[in-house]
């Protein structure tokens, strides 16, 4: 228990992280789910979601972050995002065209509107968020490996 | 047209295969092999049917998401596209068969297949798209996947080569992107056909000249033309053999040669200056590449330098600008992708059995590896231009076209480079396969079944490749491709006509 507290940064950083992490995550979800209404979208939202986990890793050390979000899960989400995006594109064939917006467009400026675009944004955010976090994890792990050798 | 729906499948199937392998393949053994080969096989079948489609219907335009081009993204299937698709997917299918056995010695085969299919998706996308920014995106997908594949072995020299390749490749991509930005600001459109129409109307002007220079540098770097070739002799030998075959066989051509042809013949418009520049770069690559190759002792490095030299032939033929020259250049592109992939697969087979790539340490392998040495002999004769093999016919066409165009100097250089190529491959055969078997190679075995099968299939195409020039066959495979280039300005008219005639699709208000 004591050792776990030694990992990562000081108690001030950890406390602030505990307060802000949820807010950052929520903000990322807000950005990605309103991608078809306001600036932002899947890429920006995915980056913000990934940043909340990166912050967790910086403040608490890699063990805590990887326990919450293991490598296998990250990789699964990344692929799931790509496959989801591709399936949405392929489902357009039901209307006769690749990438056809086959769903009901709904009323403009409402959250549930614009057909497949919010779904595409969710898929992109999964891919981008998990991908960015995976890159960060890879860099951290490579750093640790090279330190071990020295 | 319902059959037109196969056009986006080239990208969708290869991407789908890549991500399925990545998500399932790491858990189930054998799934990556099965899925990878199934995907490339489906792509080969699709590309053959695309060839049939473009033969019977001419140019087909597909509007992605039913958004009408030029505002929406267009995919264009014409003779040149279907020619390139068949070439790429044929080599990819054979290489993926070879990889079943070869990649056993590496861990995590699923990573290999994922990256391989991503690279394939990028190449198919570059070939199919009719939108210049989309072309850049697919070009980057293919390039980034190939950077990772060059570093696949993660040994020190492989990482170094991959880093060098990544830096050079990124600089090339940067030039291309800047060129696209200038073109977009000048013409206010990204659709290549629309862009060509506006450029023809407005005149290319100084912006066009700047863009031409940027594209020659950018795509020339991807095609490894001589002043931009420094990354290739490091990158291609460092990759695993199937990937070397893909990089040299088709990646350099689809990202470099195809894009140069498409942009300079169909978009910017072919002029005398570009013709002389391309011919000069082609001849320089041809001669310098072969002179650098002849002194090499590393089997794969020698082949990599020969790739530079052979790409020079292709560019020289296309740069001549005459119908015969373009036909010869494209035929040589197809032939080179066959025999160079075969040679890289041979070098991989030798490395698989003996563990060395140094020609001086081999010798007499013919006795122990009959399939490898026979196919290697075929490929060497083909690349050197010995009559019955396919390389002879395409080189002959290029030389005849150069003579017809009155370019005797270039014709002489082409003959000279061919003779030095022959000398260089005589050296390979003598040191690697003929001569006395060394003591330490007494226990080596011939390569496993799938590797031998893949090499034999490519060798067969090398032998019968000449039939491509028979009257009935040339009109359905090579001629439509060459026509797209020799009637360069027709591209934009055909595509815009096709867009106007397409029955469905909502236009962008």
Give a verbal description of the structure:
- The complex is a heterodimer of chains A (150) and B (509).
- By secondary structure, chain A is mostly helical.
- Chain A is built from six helices and no strands.
- The two termini of chain A are 29 Å apart.
- Chain B is 75% helix and 2% strand.
- Chain B has 21 helices and two strands.
- Chain B has helices at 9-25, 31-57, 79-102, 109-128, 132-150, 156-187, 192-202, 205-223, 232-238, 241-267, 272-294, 299-320, 323-354, 365-368, 370-384, 390-404, 408-432, 449-464, 471-474, 478-486, 490-501, and strands at 60-63, 74-77.
- In chain B, strands 1-2 form a two-stranded antiparallel ribbon.
- In chain B, helix 1 packs antiparallel against helix 2 (31-57), helix 4 packs parallel to helix 10 (241-267) and helix 10 (241-267) runs parallel beside helix 12 (299-320).
- The A-B interface holds A 75-76, 79-80, 82-83, 86, 89-90, 92-93, 95-101 and B 5, 8, 12, 15-16, 19-20, 22-23, 62-66, 504-505.
């Amino acid at each position: 228990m004591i050792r776990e507290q030694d990992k990562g940064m000081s108690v001030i950083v950890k406390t602030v992280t505990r307060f802000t992490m949820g807010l950052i995550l929520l903000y990322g979800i807000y950005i990605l789910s309103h991608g078809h209404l306001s600036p932002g979208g899947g890429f920006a939202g995915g980056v913000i979601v990934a940043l909340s986990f990166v912050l967790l890793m910086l403040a608490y050390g890699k063990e805590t972050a990887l326990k919450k979000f293991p490598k296998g899960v990250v990789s699964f989400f990344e692929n799931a995002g790509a496959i989801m995006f591709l399936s949405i594109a392929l489902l357009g064939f039901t209307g006769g065209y690749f990438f056809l917006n086959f769903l009901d467009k709904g009323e403009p400026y409402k959250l549930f509107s614009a057909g497949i675009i919010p779904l595409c944004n969710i898929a992109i955010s999964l891919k981008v968020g998990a991908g960015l976090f995976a890159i960060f994890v890879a860099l951290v792990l490579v750093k640790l490996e090279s330190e071990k050798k020295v | 047209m319902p059959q037109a729906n196969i056009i986006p499948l080239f990208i969708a199937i290869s991407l789908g295969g890549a991500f399925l392998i990545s998500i399932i393949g790491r858990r189930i053994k054998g799934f990556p092999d099965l899925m990878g080969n199934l995907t490339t096989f489906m792509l080969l079948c699709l590309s053959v049917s695309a060839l049939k489609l473009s033969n019977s219907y001419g140019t087909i335009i597909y509007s992605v998401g039913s958004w009408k081009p030029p505002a929406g993204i267009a995919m264009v299937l014409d003779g040149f596209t279907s020619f390139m698709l068949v070439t790429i997917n044929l080599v990819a299918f054979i290489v993926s068969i070879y990889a079943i056995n070869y990649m056993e010695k590496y861990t995590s085969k699923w990573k290999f297949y994922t990256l391989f299919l991503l690279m394939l998706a990028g190449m198919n996308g570059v070939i199919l798209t009719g939108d210049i920014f989309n072309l850049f995106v697919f070009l980057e997908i293919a390039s980034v996947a190939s950077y990772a594949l060059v570093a696949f072995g993660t040994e020190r020299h492989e990482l170094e080569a991959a880093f060098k390749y990544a830096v050079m490749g990124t600089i090339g991509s940067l030039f291309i992107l800047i060129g696209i930005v200038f073109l977009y600001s000048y013409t206010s459109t990204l659709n290549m056909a629309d862009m060509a129409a506006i450029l023809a109307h407005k005149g290319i002007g100084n912006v066009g000249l700047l863009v031409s220079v940027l594209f020659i540098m950018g795509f020339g770097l991807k095609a490894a033309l001589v002043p931009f070739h420094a990354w290739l002799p490091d990158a291609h030998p460092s990759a695993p053999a199937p990937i070397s075959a893909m990089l040299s066989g088709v990646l350099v051509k689809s990202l470099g040669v195809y894009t140069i042809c498409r942009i300079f013949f169909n978009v910017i418009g072919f002029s005398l200056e570009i013709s002389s520049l391309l011919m000069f770069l082609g001849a320089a690559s041809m001669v310098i590449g072969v002179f650098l190759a002849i002194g090499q002792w590393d089997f794969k490095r020698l082949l990599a330098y020969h790739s530079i030299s052979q790409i020079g032939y292709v560019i020289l033929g296309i740069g001549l600008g005459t119908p015969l020259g373009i036909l010869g250049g494209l035929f040589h592109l197809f032939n080179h992708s066959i025999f160079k992939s075969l040679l890289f697969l041979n070098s991989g087979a030798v490395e698989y059995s003996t563990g060395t790539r140094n020609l001086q340490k081999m010798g007499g392998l013919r006795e122990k590896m009959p399939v490898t040495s026979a196919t290697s002999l075929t490929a060497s004769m083909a690349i050197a231009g010995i009559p019955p093999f396919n390389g002879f016919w395409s080189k002959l066409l290029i030389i005849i076209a150069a003579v017809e165009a009155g370019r005797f100097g270039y014709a002489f250089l082409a003959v000279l480079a061919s003779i030095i190529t022959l000398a260089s491959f005589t050296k390979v055969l003598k040191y690697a396969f003929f001569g006395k078997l060394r003591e330490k190679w007494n226990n080596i075995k011939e390569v496993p079944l799938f590797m031998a099968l893949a090499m034999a299939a490519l060798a067969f195409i090398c032998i019968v490749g000449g039939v491509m020039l028979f009257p009935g066959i040339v009109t359905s495979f090579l001629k439509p491709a060459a026509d797209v280039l020799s009637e360069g300005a027709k591209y934009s008219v055909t595509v815009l006509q096709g867009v106007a005639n397409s029955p469905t699709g909502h236009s962008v208000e």
